[in-house]
Amino acid sequence: MNLKFKKVLVTGSAGFIGYHLTKRLLENDCHVTGVDNLNNYYDVGLKEARLRELLTFKTFTFHKIDLSDREELENIFKQGGFEVVVNLAAQAGVRYSLTNPMAYVDSNLVGFVNILECCRHFNIEHLVFASSSSVYGANTKMPFSVHHNVDHPVSLYAASKKANELMAHTYSHLFGLACTGLRFFTVYGPWGRPDMALFLFTKAILEGEPIKVFNHGKMKRDFTYIDDIVEGIVRVMKKTPEPNADWSGDSPDPGTSYTRYKIYNIGNNKPVELMRFIEVIEDALGRKAEKEFFDLQPGDVPATFADVDDLIKDVGFKPSTSIEDGVKNFIAWYRDYFQVK
Description:
By secondary structure, the chain is α/β, with parallel strands linked by helices. Helix content is about 40%, strand content about 15%. The chain contains 11 helices and 13 strands. The chain has helices at about 15-25, 45-55, 70-80, 95-100, 100-120, 155-175, 195-205, 225-235, 275-285, 310-315, 325-340, and strands at about 5-10, 30-35, 60-65, 85, 125-130, 180-185, 185-190, 210-215, 220, 225, 260-265, 270-275, 290-295. The chain has a 7-stranded parallel sheet, sandwiched between helices. Helix 1 (about 15-25) runs parallel beside helix 2 (about 45-55), helix 1 crosses helix 8 (about 225-235) and helix 9 packs across helix 11. The protein is globular, with a radius of gyration of 19 Å.
């Protein structure tokens, strides 16, 4: 696909999704400025290794800053001349938010309003930002649709992502800033996060350690492969949202607006039971897992399932990578990166 962008800012560029998106843009001759605070929520060495790969591209510039540092962020925008900003920087993780709430306030709230302010003052054409499937919270109607109400989060992480959507809508309403929010569903693949199930399970099985299976394995997740996530992002980047002429305040549609604001799900549209996911990992590794079963953890939801009709209709794309292929690719990367057999 031809990517028309000349200059793009990607926040969280040393993160899992940020790295893959930045690499895709650089391979298509885009000039990318990346920012990341390289925090120690998980192994900084993995973030630095991703960064080393990106720095081999001459069209990549990197700044180590925190989004809560308004002055530094403004300096980057002053120099940048960005057409599109993709905000992927955030304090991630549901369970971490139970014990470290202020990390989410600093990054996901203060940091995000700084991004909005910079986009407003430097006339950014399009802000694309990461939301999360976590915003669906206590909802049980499946599949989750962007047109469903999402006012019952079950973790501070989810609440902070819902807050991002509300803040973006406000800036779209007040200042005409074109904003598109993307609700990602359980992203996995090479260079993935060490706190996610696939990484944890693979590591434990290879080391002969038991894996922790929550909700007694009765979870379903809409596992979405990283390449599908990136394809969805780049397509959405090219489609600036337009006001929905049919939007009505009498029956407000949460997924669209009378202003330049839109929300999309990016998910595989095919939930997989956790026990099946474990089987696929076992098959790819050629080893069986020793399992320890636990109750559902606070802040977790039993199932996720993405309705991607709007994504298909607006940008002509539907994620389709099977977990068999995706897990195989992750394990090949894992064995190579950690030099294990």
